[in-house]
Amino acid sequence: MNPDLELVRKINGLAGQVRPFDLAMDLVTRYGHWAFVIYGLLLWFTPGKDRELRRRSCLLIFLGVLLASTISFIIGKVWNRPRPFTKDSSLWNFTGHKANASFPSNHTMNSALIAMELLKYRFKGCWIMTLLAGILAFSRVFAGMHYPTDLLGGLTVAGFVHFIMNRRAVLRFVSPLALIASFASDLIVLRIRGR
């Protein structure tokens, strides 16, 4: 007996009982990651005294997601763990997700990485985004796409990458890049406004 699969069966077994909850989980698992993109754009473009810090954090997050995704890709090539819905046909994969590697959960990994950076500086809305990261992770098990250990794997990669991205040497490299990216984005906004 596989306790990881057993837990997925129990959580996925809740699907189909409360239609509004199913719809909410479906929306979160399919589109929840877009909330992080929108939040990042707001973090970047909103004026304020801490704009330089927010923009540096946005760039750190972007580079961190690239690094984490590379690590995840390598793990998936070394260990192509089948998704739960491929192991048990009774699991309801209501999203129609393809049967690629399950470990680690990229959605959990990336949203946790973002939440860690937001919490570090207590940016406005950081707790809401952290809650959303948790709901997004749960929704992936609810939909039969990930095992709980896939979520733990995603959290582990996120923690490791967050640690790496916040080393002094990395911050020294990213700070000037953030200034260049800030200048470029401000220039683009001014051109769009016609000034």
Task: Characterize the structure shown.
- The protein has 195 residues and is mainly α.
- The protein has a single domain (3-193), classed as Up-down Bundle (Vanadium-containing Chloroperoxidase, domain 1).
- It contains 9 helices and no strands.
- Helix 6 (106-121) runs antiparallel to helix 7 and helix 6 crosses helix 8 (148-165).
- The model has no long low-confidence stretch (mean pLDDT 89).
Uncertain segments of ≥5 residues (pLDDT<50)? none
CATH architecture: Up-down Bundle
Structural class: mainly alpha
Mean pLDDT: 89
Text of the CATH class = Mainly Alpha
Q: Give the strand tally.
A: 0
- The Rg value, from CA coordinates, equals 19 Å
Beta-strand percentage range:
under 5%
Helical residue percent band = over 70%
Number of H- or I-type helical stretches: 9
* Main sheet characteristics: none
Number of domains: 1
Assign an overall shape. Answer: elongated
Could you state the CATH homologous superfamily?
A: Phosphatidic acid phosphatase type 2/haloperoxidase
Question: Ends: how far apart?
Answer: 66 Å
* CATH third-level topology: Vanadium-containing Chloroperoxidase, domain 1
What is the succession of H and E elements?
HHHHHHHHH
